[in-house]
């Protein structure tokens, strides 16, 4: 077995791995000024963006939940990886050859488990692709695709393959590639009975399912043979890297257009995703063997930058039958978990997107998306269809059924419009409809869209907006972000010059990391901002202190213009003046306690007191002139 990854290789991974690229695979990031990027936190639900990424320092931090760290910590947390797995994943992506303490490089079974699982799926995908292209029996799969208008280029674009109708063709191929049966069972490529492991996918067309980052995490396989008594679609089971409630097929292909267009189109199957993309609707994704749910909401909100402005759109393309209507109702139940507006589009003749593309062309698919209506309207009108609106009893019953749905409308400004629309559909006056909706809202406790949560302090942690500590915070931010502008004065400050224990601990970590003066001297040769903060993090006492260090390294400075030595002098002078004031108070108290007979001690203390008063005045003048 390979041992611990060498420290210098880990450092090289941190240096080469661009944190904005890695985080950007999961979160839409926007420029927030000062060299920082902002997005919705992937680690907790929020409506206003408080997740900040600073590429120049290789750090991220959420000012809502205090999650923070470097690119390795981010990947570990979001993908639930070990340290070695995250480093290996990044090393593979950024071309770093890892060495291990015991010597050599990690190959084969020495790789961390989740890294091995991803690689095993990639090897299996390549095997399936090769079978589709060259295996005679794969003609069934090629014919299936051709019937639906998908040529070889489309199959290649989506990585489609074919699983041979054999007991263990894949198993033999994977064993030859160095994978053990236990690994293949764990990752879901094999199933097992009394005879041992056998291919899970046999005689089927296979779609690779990839994470937002492009890793192959599972497969979906379509039945082709009449003698196949399995389900129409057979997916990878739950594994350490595949969790179907969080997976959206096509997200790796669609994520950039989703972020760009502020729209995602949700369809029901793999071929629907293919048809939409080929028709120019490149924001299409599909769930994988499960209903659209809360975990999918969280994934999409981060890509849509789904916050208070209500700018984005989620468009569901459902079949026009009863199953499609039920799917719409399920989606409506997730509505309040989005800030973004939800829409639905249904083809009147019941064609799914793949059939529509095949029979009527790309423009018809684009027109279908353009014909979307609000999901709430679709659901309400579906409810109304169950009642006889030609008679008063039917209209009243329909109002009772529809009012709670209208009351759930998130945007209060739209609720009034919805009331008027419902009045028209029912053929009733507006006022009784408005009263019914108001009563339903009161019964539900329904409220409209509101601002997101503000930053709060956890126990033992200073709040970011604590005005009494704002000076301490700014000086520490300068020391972490721009050490050269506070050197050497910062190093002359004792750690207890800061007022909060957390800030004292940060100051001690800076001191233990060598101080800002040494960092300023080394900056041009080998001391980037990122490596400086990394040294401070390594020197921090514990994870709580490291979290505060990360927060301060990422948070923007208060300066209205680019911070310089003049700005730093002002902040340092204010802090030093406060420290000197504290010493003056202590000396005055001591002077009052000295006996008149102790003339020498009294004189020494008095002289020191005069010196400190002069120093305080000088620092005050520097602070005034430092702006």
Describe the structure using short key phrases.
627 residues; alpha+beta; DNA Primase, Chain A; DNA primase DNAg catalytic core, N-terminal domain; Dna Topoisomerase Vi A Subunit, Chain: A, domain 2; six-stranded mixed β-sheet; five-stranded antiparallel β-sheet; 17 strands
What do these coordinates show?
The chain has 627 residues and is an alpha+beta fold. The chain has five domains: 7-110, DNA Primase, Chain A; 113-242, Alpha-Beta Complex (DNA primase DNAg catalytic core, N-terminal domain), CATH 3.90.980.10; 262-380, Dna Topoisomerase Vi A Subunit, Chain: A, domain 2; 386-444, Pheromone ER-1 (Up-down Bundle), CATH 1.20.50; 467-625. 52% of the residues lie in helices and 12% in strands. It is built from 27 helices and 17 strands. The strands form four sheets. The chain has a six-stranded mixed β-sheet with strand order 12-14-13-15-16-17, with helices on both faces. The protein has a five-stranded antiparallel β-sheet with strand order 1-2-3-4-5. A four-stranded antiparallel β-sheet has the order 6-9-10-11, covered by helices on one side. Helix 11 (270-278) links the parallel strand 13 (263-267) and strand 14. It starts with 6 loop residues before the first helix and ends with a helix.
